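pinging the channel bc i need a second pair of eyes. not urgent but kinda urgent?? the chain im working w is below, pasted from the shared doc
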Amino acid sequence: MSEQQAETDPVVEEPATEVEPATEAPVAEEQFAFDVNDFPGGARSALEAVLMVVDEPVTEVALASALELPVDDVREHLEGLEREYAEQQRGFTLRSVAGGWRVYSRSDYAAVVEKFLLDGQQAKLTQASLETLAVIAYRQPISRSRVSAVRGVNVDGVVRTLLNRGLIEELGAEGDSGAVLYGTTDYFLQRLGLGSIDELPALAPYLPEVDVLDEIAEQGRA
């Protein structure tokens, strides 16, 4: 082939390679995605499960968010449960109080509940109760979350026991968070033979300060 032919021959371009569009990575399913209708007892049983673990009245909006249901549906189920409990003469009832719903013992059984609580006052406190009571006594007024931070465990049940025994009481709410604050009662002082909290043995220096408790509590929620 001559140099002239090489200069005049057309240049054949190779076809461009087709680029496949990028595919998006699959979106992970939400961690708590579910359909309440898939539960054995449906939405009402799911509501009961949530209400059994709350310590304070919970709003219809909060329940609707947890169960991923419309608020109107949640209200209908709550009212239905309230009727069912009354018709079945259950020992507990469901009531709407202060804008929220909570399970309560039925007033018809107040006598047996009172006897149980009074009999319980004669029983010895568990180690967990004693430890929780000590934290409250030395760091009062103090919230449950701060007590939990000291002990490293949830203290909701123990706090209820101490309240029922009359050893601690609510002392208002914390300004920033609104958390309920607890302190010891006069009955607590009587049981220990003390005239005031100032007569407690010098143990407080060995307990964390409030700011340290807040830091521990935040770490536990992270």
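so The chain has two domains: 36-107, 124-221. and Confidence is low (pLDDT under 50) at residues 25-30. — does that match what u expected or am i reading it wrong
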